[in-house]
Design goal:
Oligomer: single chain
Low-confidence stretches: 1-7
Structural class: mainly alpha
Mean pLDDT: 92
Largest sheet: none
Radius of gyration: 19 Å
Length: 244
């Protein structure tokens, strides 16, 4: 943290702390608008709110670093570091998720009721055909996962590390990452369902691992590949639940 001689935070450090607080809360606010508040509104309105919210969210870190901090870090020589760990962890989680779903949760009917809520959301968002779902799933798993890593690990976690020690930064940034997922999971499973909170905990643990891997390697490649593979598993299960 940038401090004066009497250890009080400077204006710059207070501004950075405010920026990272906004960044931590913004995705949950965006999700609350398009996923909750507009859930009964026309498809075009939900799609517009989603697109506009994401544009603001993913533009904010770069705008802050360029316009306020005026210090965009350069890609290091070890940009490919962490690829093996990311791929291995992602494949492990992907296999475990598919196994648990097909062997246990799916046959037990655990997702029968949530699947109806998922179908309704796909209809509301205009994603209820296989072609549109697969196109959107491809975007989410490849592009959106990279944007989330840039947002949560590079900016939210990275900025927190300028202000806080490692483990508080990992914990807070990972809880921020899990927060907007809580709204989505509760929309499908309900706030009282253990599956909602199990899912939130899993997202937080994943975010913590990706933050740790990012700090350890200095590269987003490993966290991104791991995140991408986890998203592939989630979206594959989603496809089977609502479109098969």
């Amino acid at each position: 943290m940038n401090t004066t001689n009497d250890s009080r935070p400077t204006i710059s450090s207070r501004l950075d702390a405010a920026a990272v607080a906004v960044a931590a809360l913004l995705p949950t606010a965006v999700t609350a608008v398009y996923f909750v508040a507009l859930s009964e509104q026309p498809t075009w309105m939900q799609q517009t709110a989603w697109a506009a919210g994401k544009l603001v969210q993913f533009s904010f870190p770069l705008a802050w670093v360029l316009a306020v901090q005026q210090n965009l870090p350069r890609m290091g020589r070890r940009w490919h570091a962490g690829l093996g760990a990311g791929a291995a962890s992602g494949m492990l989680v992907l296999a475990a998720m598919l196994l648990v779903y097909h062997v246990w949760l799916g046959p037990a009917g655990t997702f029968d009721e949530p699947a109806q809520a998922m179908r309704e959301k796909l209809v509301n968002m205009g994603l209820d055909s296989p072609a549109r779902y697969l196109a959107f799933a491809g975007f989410l798993s490849v592009v959106h996962s990279l944007l989330e890593e840039y947002y949560y690990r590079w900016f939210v976690f990275g900025q927190m590390r300028r202000l806080l020690p490692r483990w508080p930064s990992i914990a807070i940034s990972s809880l921020a990452f899990a927060a907007h997922h809580a709204l989505v999971l509760a929309g499908f499973f309900g706030w009282a369902s253990p599956l909602t909170w199990l899912g939130v905990a899993a997202v937080a643990v994943g975010g913590a691992y990706w933050a740790w891997l990012y700090e350890r390697t200095g590269s987003l490649l490993g966290p991104w590949i791991s995140h991408l593979l986890v998203d592939v598993a989630i979206l594959a299960i989603g496809y089977e639940l609502v479109l098969v």
